[in-house]
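Working notes for the structural subgroup meeting. M.R. asked for a predicted model of this chain before we commit to crystallization trials. I am recording the input and output together here so anyone reviewing the notebook later can reproduce the run.

Input as submitted:
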Amino acid sequence: FSTPYFPINPSMAAQPAAGQQNASLYVGDLTPDVTEAMLFDLFKAVGPVLSIRVCRDAVTRRSLGYAYVNFQNPVDAERALETLNYHTLKGAPLRIMWSHRDPSLRKAGAGNVFIKNLHKSIDNQTLYDTFSQFGNILSCKVATDSMSGESRGYGFVHFESEESAKAAIEKVNGMLLKSLQVYVGPFHRRAVRQKDASTTFTNLYIKDMKEGVTEEVLKAHFATFGTISSTCLKADKKGRPFAFVSFETHEEATKAVEESHDKYIETLCPGEDSKLYCQRAQKKSERMEEMRKKMSQLRARKMHEYSGSNLYVKNLDDTIDKDGLIAAFEKFGEITSAKVVYDDATPPVSKGFGFVCFKDAEAANKAISEMNGHMLGAKPLYVNVAQRKEVRQATLEVQYAARYSRMAGGGPQGAPPVAQPMGGYPMYGSPPGGFPGYPGAAPAYPYGPAGPGAMPRAGMMGAPKWAQQGMPGMGPFPPQGAPPMQMPGGPQVMQMRPAQQGQQPARRPMPGQGMPGSRPMQGGKGGPRPGMPPQMGGGPGQFRQPRSKPDAPAVPAAAPVPAADIPLTPSQLANMSPEQQKNALGERLFAAISAIQPEYAAKITGMLLEMDVTETLNLLESPDVLNSKIGEALAVLQAHEGEPKA
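Returned structure, recorded in token form:
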């Protein structure tokens, strides 16, 4: 998921072997817009840099916020760590540390110290200077707000040894830093802290109380369970009261929860049908995490329940409201809900889209086939299955990646035209439009030296299994992505352009006859001079093939299609052209459908391949959804052929 800034020898950029000094640095806390070029301009002043790469997401290609810088000399790497650590780049300080291949040191947590109640003015550099006197520091960071960039009042210091961490805790814990008393203790992961809190809590949160309740009434009820150390009674923005009650021991707090939670308390509850909420007090981040889990489970259950039956309707006329939407779609089946989305204006104005949810998927499919493109009011409708934002985004990313792959000459994602390095980043030090190291080299073409015709055409590809049924005697075509045939005598750089249907192949010019549109040679002869190669074309509008150098890079081959028994991933689909995606998905769908319905396997496969790429991939990953779609397709086929249902 990372892209090198410029090509290097892999053996040079490898991790140093045992006994050698490390020359690789980890650079963290990068802003999303920091590129390899910016980091190179910063680190090249320290010493020769072998490579720089910003780690990116495999699908979205967005920066993950960290990078690796490999120096040629370990001394330069150490100097960069000393001089550029916490240097500000794009408004954010860089956090630089040595790169370690073994993550055990980082995950073990040994020597990691947590500091809280820090003054807002204390930054990374100040924290580093404060704790560096106790030993070597691997990493140091003050937590900041992602929006404003202000300190959140706590930080972390990771020492090289456990002894240094213990010395820092002993000396600094309870001291005043910028007039604030700080807490310094060993770092514990969130899962460990939450587990410990659930078994040692003493603070309780109480809500669902009646209005006008007093703190004396609250204390009177909870004092029966043990000694109360403190209480706090407040009201939210809507005037609803809530409270915190802290006990001296965990056992007393546990008893209060058991006797009060989800029960009617006459002195605290507003009515007999209401029940009191009394549970362990949680931090906001912990509550938000639980709410996210509950919402995601509820959303997943709704998506499974309404899968394929919820429709998205776009390009609605301004006069169409909820009743008009229901009237247009109710003829296809029972509608459970419908909605037209409006803006916040006064009076509200339709945004031009809405949703219609049917009781079953069959009615929804019928509505899509008949209402997509149907004129409702003065506009044609767009009707399709409703998708979540993440699914739509993944679909668009796959489509854009496939389009980029075609523009790059059919190569896999991350393999752009010949004159560029992998990843699409500009070559450092290369002349515009040429190859690095070749002054005045021929310009690069977006489809490679052989032009767009170098890609295998759809008619030349091998037909998949699901498209070969009923065609006995057909010989197999060459597999897609196979290398071009080579002539004896050395490697062949150019790829032949396959002739289109009905087009005569180009003939070799006869002696004394030039190519069409070519300029006559000296002496009035159209043929080439002795010892000179014939021209590839020179007329206006014709493609002129630049002469290739012996070490010119070859045109990237088409993305290899995984075998039919290997599961597909979205990243693999993104590296394929649309034809390759259809063939790969069709092979796997045909094999899965043949095991369930061999008689109609080919027809059902063709029907299901009309769906989106992400929906088809979901069929391969969800056997239940695939069985449902096979049943729907089989019903349509039997109804069309007039055969009785089995």
